[in-house]
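REQUEST FORM: STRUCTURE PREDICTION
Request ID: SP-0412
Submitted by: Lab K.M.
Chain count: 1
Length (residues): 105
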Amino acid sequence: MSFKEYTLPDGTKKRRGQAFRIEDVGSFPANWLELATRDDLTRLGITVETIPDPVPTLQEIKIGAKREVEGRAIRSSVSAVVTQAETDIDAAINEAEVQVVLDAI
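STATUS: Completed
RESULT:
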């Protein structure tokens, strides 16, 4: 996800959510840059640049893929354990029901 970087007239860089001050103009609240129109920014000499996210390295891609595979394996293992537990519980209930019937005979 890219983000916008604002450059104030004095060269200071700001991002959304940061309050700032421009000499001889005044102070601006943290949400002002997000709410300002292009005309507002131009009038005050503020420029905007959209900064793209960096391209991930091959190592970062491999790490992400490994985590995804591990996550799937864990979810699969948990699912298998739950399924086995349900099977064991059903078998125990059936066995107990049979024993109750046998005891009643």
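NOTES: The helical segments are 32-35, 38-43, 58-104.
Reviewed by: T.R.
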